[in-house]
What does this fold into?
Amino acid sequence: MLTGLREAQLARAIERLRNPAPGGKAEAAARFGVDVTLLIEQLKLEPAERARRMHSLAQAAAGARGAARKA
Amino acid sequence: MNFEAAVQRLCDSGVAFVVVGGWSAIFHGSSHVTNDLDVCYARDRANLDKLAAALAPYRPRPRGFPAELPFLWDAATLANGTIFTLTTDLGTIDLLAEVPGVGSFPEVLAVSVEVDAFDRRLRTLDLPSLIRAKKAAGRPKDLLVLPELEALLEAGGEDEKAPSG
It folds into this structure.
């Protein structure tokens, strides 16, 4: 079952993203331009909440694209 | 677009499916917004019947298919293909009989996990398999999200699986 991270897991994940190990994937992501603060915000949520949040964003983005086409 | 309704419809219709692609990434913590719902589905006849019936009310048509040409949406059509990139009244939905790097539905199911989302319990690829699928697909939009997914896997790993480079 995919669930949100428990408190200790979340604390460890945040630490690894904020202070990535040299040569690791988190460091590579940061160098690539990934905004780890966004990942941290997502990891604080349960998967259902992540989905709800991104669904709202997707709908807002689609609405904005529609408005831009009409303009 | 209403992916929530699409997922609920598939679940409530008893379709055997696994969410892959961008929504799977979101369940795992990705911050990338996605414009479509990618699902891998079982190709047995009973499931094709359920899948066809589930989406029929939402007028599925292949994206880019000429509007003036008729398109028949039923289980027989589904049986004749393995990839359907659809536009529907609920949004764009991609139906995949196989997932690159993972395999067909039984293999996908074997590496899937349950997740509660959209007020339903459904299945999605586990994170290592999603990464494998994205690498195998290899399109720019897949590769773009890879660093994020790999960082999530590393960040969420147990201590003994700590960053190794």
Summary: Residues 57 and 63 of chain A are 10 Å apart (CA to CA). Residues 47-70 of chain A form the longest helix (24 residues). The helical segments of chain A are 7-18, 25-32, 36-43, 47-70.
